[in-house]
Amino acid sequence: HAQKQTDSTQKAGLLKTAIESIETFKEVELQNYFQDDCVTRLKEELQQKKKESISQAAIFYPIMFDDRVELVLSLPSSNGSDDRLFKQVNAPISSKELQRQAEAFRERISRKGYMTVRNNSQGENRDFEYFPYANSLYNALIKPIMTPNTEEERKSLERVNTLVIVPHGILRSIPFAALCNNCDENNENNGKQQKFLIQHYALAVIPGGELTDLRERSKGDFKPKQALLNGLREPTNLREPTNLLTAKKKVEIVVGDICSKEQKSSYHFGKLDNVPEELSAIQDMLGVGEDNRLEEEQFTVTAVEDKLKSSSYSIVHFSTHGLFNENQGDSFLLAYDGPLELDRLEALFKPSIFQDKPVELLTLSACQSALGNEQRATLGLAGIAVKAGVRSAVGTLWLVAEKSTTDLMKTFYEMITKGKPRSKALQEAQSYLLMQTPYYDPYLWAPFLLIGNWL
Fold first, then answer.
1. Domain residues of the chain, as ranges?
2. Which of 72, 136, 304, 353 would give a disulfide with 61, using CB separation of 3.0 to 4.6 Å?
3. Rounded to two decimals, what is the model's pTM?
4. Which of 197-211, 273-287, 382-396 has the highest mean pLDDT?
5. Distance (Å, rounded) from C-alpha 318 to C-alpha 107?
């Protein structure tokens, strides 16, 4: 018995060391993206601060090696102490097969045309169905690690209401919310029968546990009324193709088809018809004054700069096209008069850290805001959060230019005003949406990600 306990202790120690190695790798990855070491300095600052309890969260590291996929889970202690329980499982799938399935899942779930075929064919055309991959990925990634093998694991898992994912490789580009336990072609019933992962756990994505700002805050720190709302329905001054010189190279912006798959150096930014309604719904929900709503010609780069320099905000919301590219210098949000570059946005957020009043929540509700290069899907958004001191960010893996986004955002902010944790607020918004008859397809609700502090 003593030998068994020693082996168990040694294994726990090895797993803890493995997680520390992963954290170091994630830190280097972010440093490479931003090409400086301020990420490390911020990490050191955060570690010196008191961290809030993560007693109801499991932190999940799915790691793809050349020859295998390892799943590592950090669980809250079963007895309520600060110690963590570590669990490791060799996933029943190869890296190559996981890559193939993740790509197919992403392709089938993120296309509006595929959703239309699904809703009309009722399973007759399997080439457009997401559910075989949603089930397979659930069985490969979630089931093995979330199924208890011991009484201690069972007790620990019972405490968990939030699954915090530190994704690797292609897994950064898939919506974990739509992984499914035995889904079928009946989209509507899948939600009614509670088959989706989001219906069982609040979800968050983080660049790494040590790189996430979990500082304790008093209830008074987060003031939803202190919000800056920005929106652009139509980039009217970009009717002709326009070359925008960003930090590293020219990026051509063309108004037209939205987010076509073949995007290389030109990006087609079309109308976002639901922007006025979305901003109005959020404004009413939060009680934001008219002077903190920048829309259309009022939403200029200078206007945003002036606002962020002169006031501190708990929430900054952008309903506009955005692109996070592989190079940070080519990443921007689209304002009325052109691109608001990532570098500038980060510089505007930074002073608020020094006053110990960081922006609590940055929301980007339109195109490609969580997705640059698919392999680096969360680096842009997570990077802003880490580097500029924003505690949480909400973004989308693909554009959903539909009324459903307005409804989701309205519910999300309603939950925030009621004091719900951010991951729980997004979970409730997504769960609400998927139970509404016109909105049950995951194309509409799955791409929304909460990145960073989930509390």
1. 2-211, 219-448
2. 72
3. 0.85
4. 273-287
5. 26
